[in-house]
Structures are given as structure tokens and as C-alpha cells.
Amino acid sequence: DGSDDRMIELKLGQREFSMVGMQYLLHLAMPNFYFHMTTAYDILRHNGVPLSKAIFMGSR
Fold this sequence. Notes:
Blueprint: E1 7-12, E2 15-20, H1 21-46, H2 53-57
Antiparallel strand pairs: 1-2
């Protein structure tokens, strides 16, 4: 829909950032998502939840 070229403006703390949609997706949104997904998986595994790589990857 053309959002990859749309300007995204963010304020994180005292800093302000502006970037195009694709740059935001690849350099901020996706890394942030995968960081939190992996951290949640690690915490669950640490607490004894029987998760496998297949479950993490969505194969099951």
C-alpha cells in the first residue's frame, strides 16, 4: 500500500527520529519484536515450560 516510503516519526525519551517505513520495519520494529519474543521464550524455558524450537518457529 506504499507504506514502505511513508515517513515515520518517533520520540524515544528525549530523542526524536524520522525514517521511512521500510527502514523503521527493518531496523526498529522487527528487531524489537524478535528480541521480546526470544526473551519471553527464554524466560518460559528457564521456568520449566516444555517448549521446543519447532514450537518457537511455529511449526507445531
